[in-house]
Amino acid sequence: MSSLVTLSPQQQELAERARRFVEQELLPYEVQAERAGGRLPQEIVDGIRTAAVKAGLNGGRIAPEHGGQGWSATDYVAVHEQLGRSTNGLWWWIPDAYNVLTAGTPEQIDRYLRPCVAGTAAVSYAVTEEHAGSDPSRIATTARRVVDEHGEGWLISGEKWFVTSGDVATTHVVVAVAEEGPTLFLVPADAPGVETVDDPPFTHSFPHGHPAIRFTDVRVGPAEVLGPLGGADALQQRWFVEERLGIAVHCVAAMGRLLEEATAWAAGREQGGSRILDYQGVSFPLADSAADAAAARLLVYEVAALADSGADPKVVHAKASVAKLFASEAANRCADRVVQVFGGRGYIRTTAAERFWRELRVDRIWEGTSEIQRLVVARALERRGVRAVIA
Ligand SMILES: Cc1cc2nc3c(=O)[nH]c(=O)nc-3n(C[C@H](O)[C@H](O)[C@H](O)COP(=O)(O)OP(=O)(O)OC[C@H]3O[C@@H](n4cnc5c(N)ncnc54)[C@H](O)[C@@H]3O)c2cc1C
Questions:
Q1: Which end of the chain is less enclosed by CB atoms within 10 A, N or C?
Q2: Pocket of ligand 1 (CB under 6 A)
Q3: pLDDT tens by residue, 357-376
C-alpha cells in the first residue's frame, strides 16, 4: 500500500524543484550566514532571490494575478517540507508576503503586495507589545481619529516588540486599536514618528532582526487602513492557520534532515570497537525521533488536506494548533537527541544539528506558544467535539 500522503505528479515536481533549490541555493550558505550572525552579502541575497523567482517559489500562496504561485495548502506544505531543511532561516530570503495583504484594496495590492512578491519591498507585521504577547486584548497601541488639513486620518501611537524584518521593512502592518476595535494599518517605515528603540540579538541567527519599534503620533490616512476598521482579529485568524502550518512543516523538514545526518554519522562513527549506531543508547533516540517525525508529517499533511477540502475553518484552526504543538515539541526533542548523537561535534555551530537545536526553540514560542496551542486545542475539544479534533 502506498503512503497516506500522496502527492500528485505536479506536487512531486514542485517538491523536487524546491529540493534542488534548497540544495543549490541555500545549503551552501548556511555556515557563512551562521558565522555572520545570520546576514549574507547582498550579492548572495540577490542570487537567492533571483533563483527563487526563476524556480517559481516566490509568493507561494499568493494568487497568480498578484504575481504569486496560487499554491494550495498541500502544495505549500510540499514545498516547505523542503525549504525547512535549511538552517538559519535561509528560506526567509525568498520573496513573499504576509497573507493579510491580500485583504487590501487594488491600490494597496499594487503598492504593497506585488512588490513583496517580486522581492522589491519588505513588509513587517507588528502585533506583539511589551504587555501584549499571548494576550492580544492587552494591545495598547492606539489609532486616534483626527480631521486636519489633510482630511480624515489617524494618529498611531504605541510600541511594538519582536517585529520580524522590522529592520529592513519599507512598511509595517501595525495592529492598533481604533474606535471600531483592533485595526490593521500600513505604516511607512520612514514616516515621521517611527523609530527603532531596540534591536536585540536573538538565540537564532536569522536573515533579519526582530526590533522593537515605537510609533509616536504617526499620521496615516484612509489609504493606509488595511481591511475593515475593527477587522484585525478576523484577518489574523487566516494568518494564524497558514503560519502555524508553516511552522509545523518546517519542524517536520528539520527532523528529516536531522535524522538523515545523524543516521549517516552514527553508522560511520566507531567508538569502543563498534559503530555507535549499534549501541541502543544511540539508536533508540533516533528511533524515537523517527516516530516523532513520521507522526508530525502525517498531521501536517492532514491539516493541509482539510484546509484544501474547504473543511470548517474552526476545525482547521484547531487542527493547525495540534500540528504546530506536536511538531514543534517533537522537533525540539529530536534536535536535542541528535546533538547528543553527534557528541562534541553536535555543539559546534558549523554542524546543522547544533543550529537546528537553537533555531527550533522559537517554534515553540512564536505564532502562539505551545501553551496557547494547548488552550486552542482544549477549547476545541469541548466546542467542536473530540472526534473533530482527533479524527
Ligand atoms: C524571534 C521572534 C520573532 C517574532 N516575530 C514577531 C513578529 O514578526 N510580529 C509579532 O507581532 N510578534 C512576533 N513575535 C512575538 C511572539 O509572537 C510572542 O513572543 C509570543 O506570542 C509570546 O508572547 P510573549 O513573548 O509576550 O510571552 P507571554 O505571552 O508573556 O508568555 C510568557 C509565558 O507565559 C505563558 N502563557 C501566557 N499566557 C498563558 C495562558 N493563558 N495560559 C498558559 N500559559 C500562558 C506563555 O506560553 C509563555 O510560556 C516574535 C517572537 C520571537 C521570539
A1: N
A2: 125-128, 133-134, 162-164, 202, 210, 362, 365-369, 371-372, 375
A3: 999 999 999 999 999 999 99
